[in-house]
Amino acid sequence: MRTLYLDLETFSKTPITHGTHAYAANAEILLAAWAWDDAPVQVTDFTTSPPEQIPPDVSTFANDPDVEVVIHNSHFDRTVIRHVWGIDIPTKRIHDTMVQAMAHSLPGSLGMLCEVLGLPSDKAKDKDGKRLIQLFTKPLGKNRLLRRATRETHPEDWERFKAYAAADVEAMREIKKRMPLLNFTPAERALWQLDQRINDRGVAIDLALVDSAITAIDKAKHELAGRTQALTDGSVSSATLNEVFRLHLFEAFGIDLPDLQMATIEKTLSTLELNPAMRELLTIRLQASSTSTAKYRVLMRGTSTDGRLRGLLQFCGAIRTGRWAGRLFQPQNLPRPTLKQKAIDAGIEALRAGCAPLTTDNVMELVSSAIRSCIVAPTGKKLVVADLSNIEGRVQSWLANEEWKLQAFRNFDAKVGPDLYKLAYSKSFGVAPGAVTDDQRQVGKVQELALGY
Question: Model-level pTM greater than 0.90?
Answer without folding.
Answer: no
